[in-house]
# Entry
Amino acid sequence: MNMPSDDERRRLLRTEGILAGLLRYGALGAAGWLVVGMAWGFWGDGPPSAGRAPAFSDRCLATGIVLLIALPVLRVALMAIVFTMEKDYRFAAISGTVLTIIAVGFLLGAL
# Structure
């Protein structure tokens, strides 16, 4: 069994660090938006009423949810970029195919 070289090991650790940072800080950012939205809704906007425009708290909550949904998509996109830079075209094509499937799903869901 071939052991990876030190350069390959460093590159793998750097890639894993970037992915972990994206997911960690992305989840923290989304959670922050959700907390702000809940706190603002509890103390700032008052009770919801029918027929009113979306309040600031509603927009904060929506932003947090969109960020949570977007994180896995961003991870796949980042992996496609990393695989392309490393000239691993098979996995880059797989990542691109997954991104295409996700995009088609979003477009069909928007109809």
